[in-house]
Amino acid sequence: MITEDLLRISSNQGSESVENDDANSNYTFSPGGSMYFVPVCVDENCKHFVDQIFDSLEAGLNLYKDYGRSCGYGTRRSAEKQDEDHTVIKEHNQDFVPEMGRQFMRVNREMSCISWNFAFDAGTANIGTSKSFFFMKELVGGYANVGATVRDFRNFRKDLKEYVGERDAQMIVEKFNAKKESCKSFYFAYDLDKEGHLTKLFWVDSVARRNYELYGDAVSFDATFDTNKYNMVFCPFTGIDKHEKCVTFGFALLSKEDIPHFKWAFDQFLKAIGRNPVCIITDQCPVMKQAIPMSFHATEEFPATKHRLCMWHIMEKFPVKLGNFISKETDLMEKMKKYTWSSTIEPDEFEKGWKSVLKEFKLEGNRWLWEMYAIRTSWIPAFFRDKPMFCLIRTTSRSESENNFFSQFHRQSDTLCEFYLHFESAMDKQRYETAWLNQEGSSTIPATITKLFMEAEAAQVYTRPVFYKVQQEMVALGYDMRIQTIGPLVDGIKCYEMKDVMLKDQVFKVKLLGVSDDFKMMENASLKQTNIWFSFQKSMNKTGVILEKLAYVEKTVKQLVSDLGDDTYLSKKAHIEMLMGPHPREDLTIHVSKECSNKGSGTCPNKNQARVDPNVDINEDRPKKKKARVNPTVDITESDDDRVESS
């Protein structure tokens, strides 16, 4: 069957060019029957011609690359030779990529520094590759303008991890050394095992030091998991600031949860901060119970730190230790909470109430309850009511809230370098919110309810959360009448002169001490890039949609690009080095931590899991265990600590 194309060949012998259906190219046939394609370039600025002169070789290559992009074919640089040809060959032996498919060509999928920075910053904010790619699409106005695919974004993240590799631990230590040189108030310490693997890491910056000076009386300490690929536990020292928000005093990464590791972290914290906290609250971890008095003991300058246990964890064990029926179907917990949670009763009143509840429900023989009673001075608020700052924290909820906050930034697959980048992003957010609350409190005054001068004064002195508590107490006490003067005692009778409103004129002046930033001593190039970007945005806002102004901006930008030169600023490897930090110059002396096995990492074997002996045949018949019969009348004094008692 003779096709239409063959008929054309026979009629014009291949001399006539035929336009393709998609108007992307024209094709011709040689006398030998070979098909050749000639591109149709719409952009006049990309066309090349004989005797065209370029400023440099790179400029000529870039023009030909742009010409290929416009026509729909890829280009690459292979061999070089010096010769005078004076010809331009436009024919190709392959068809060109149509308009819709050109965005997927390799020549159009070269990630630039902007794309690298965007993918890196998105990862620092814990934004996945897919979402960061979609955000980039919205910024540039379409998928075709991104210059990459989702796979390219993923490959860049992979390149970051491969760049770090086994140098992870030494790179993070060298990064801390650089921060120490630039800011003397930055403190860090680390420890290695016999094989040179990183096992402990502690650091604290100047902002954390200042926060501890202001709010470091009560500290909450807890460990969180799944923050890095080595299963090292992240242990922040947390407190409460003047806005009743979480504030962090110090940070530690530990490979184990044992006494030496916790003691080392506490010792480094004390060495960096300089004084014992008044109170530190943890859960009922027996390891912390032994490590805390070893580090925060009494000295000539500071008293010993009081170790307080989390009330919430203890109260949550009541249904487990006493049984669901007696805990949920009776009013035991309601009566017990009346004495355990109250901070207004005296210790002797608590002791009488505790014993009366045990007697009412016939729990005098429960060993666990008496164990909790024996350590009552460590968790009952009645024993802390007269000690300053002990009422600030009664549970480890602050630490759990802090751990949940950090979990929004960290991934289990993070290297230590990635972990620290995400950590800095989290701290920037926390400190930004604190600065915003400070500005709001200094620029506005909350509304008062009473006519008392004391309330108006409190509105100017206290922060919002503290003031609202003071205001609530004033309203609760009744504020219509106030004591003006108190007369002397005459014949056993004292006279009070009352007045509706007590007027008083007094002004408080509060000096705010600034905190030096770690990066104020270094000139940051990214700050200049940000300023340039915002200046460009202002210029674009002035142009609007006026075509003449847009054409002027486009011409100016092209001229600026030409003036800056054709050389690429950084290669991909050099750009990754700028983002992640340089490789260690010498041989590795600090190796990455071994995969840790902790109770929250998911790698710790279950104590109830059967251990398989390789020398024992698992298919061998084993005698079946007899089920123990539970006698409901068994004396509960014989129960051990881990047994669940039934009522």
TrEMBL record:
MULE transposase domain mapped to chain residues: 219-317
Superkingdom of the organism of origin: Eukaryota
Pfam families attached to this UniProt entry: MULE (PF10551)
InterPro entries assigned: MULE_transposase_dom (IPR018289)
Region listing for Disordered, in residue ranges: 597-647
Bias type Acidic residues, positions: 637-647
Biased composition range(s): Polar residues: 598-609
PANTHER family linked to this entry: OS01G0519700 PROTEIN (PTHR47718)
Protein name per the record: MULE transposase domain-containing protein
Organism: Heracleum sosnowskyi
